[in-house]
Amino acid sequence: MGGFIFRWRRPIIIVLVIMVVSLSLSFTARVHGKVVALSNLIGSAVSPASSSLTYLGNKVGAGVGTVGQLFTLEQQNVQLKQKLLLYNSMKLELSELAQENSQLRGMLDLRQKAAGWKLVTATVISRNPDSWFDTVVINRGTRSGVSPGMAVIVPQGVVGRVISASPVSATVMLILDPSSGVGAQDVRSQSAGIINGRDPITGQLNLQLFSHNPDILPGDAVVTSSYSEYYPPGLLIGQVVRVTKTAYGLTENAVVAPSVNFNQLENVMVVLSHPSGTSLPPIYGGTR
Fold this sequence. Notes:
Blueprint: H1 2-7, H2 9-113, E1 118-126, E2 135-138, E3 151-154, E4 157-165, E5 170-174, E6 182-186, E7 192-198, E8 205-209, E9 221-224, E10 236-245, E11 252-258, E12 267-273
Antiparallel strand pairs: 1-2, 1-12, 2-5, 3-4, 3-12, 4-5, 6-7, 6-9, 7-8, 8-11, 9-10, 10-11
């Protein structure tokens, strides 16, 4: 028996190897089929989740991109606001410079037109909020020849008069002050009266007329009269808006819109002296 096996050992080994390989291949095929089936089953199970994760990932990516875009837009918005602020600041500064240039040109023109008048230019340096429409302080005083009683004007008309002066400054009572008492007259009819301050509500001047039936109409120009104690005649005060009767109808009052913008009062001129009997040209309120 032993000799038989020894003699046929090689064929027997080959047959055994073939059998083992066959069995291995069969087992592997079966396992592979099951693995493939299991893989397909797992793939089917996780496919919705995988799709959801992919969709979520895309959305998160898009969201991150949107946040980045919003951040960029916010930065651009801040830069645009800064540029707009700078532009508005420059625009305001140019407007102020243009206004100041116009005022100074008007002052120069007034000085040229007022031949024989001795004028000194001054700047308003202080206004009290409690007496905004009553007095202002200018940067010229006795060292510049300014003294109480002198008229203060601008190209648009009369401003007020000096009531006190120090070496380097002076206080000016505006014609808006009820205690100023400016002698005035209608240019067209020569009807006379007194400007006794402004109405606190309308901001317009009150002209109390002397005549019982004065010839004064809306639109008439009103100037300082020769009866004024402090003002040269012919300085423009304003324009008649309407005429009203007093409480008992004995006299008439006129409402006058001032020619000077007292809210934007910056540069003025003090009349140090002027030739007797002279007045300013008509464009500055002088009589024709």
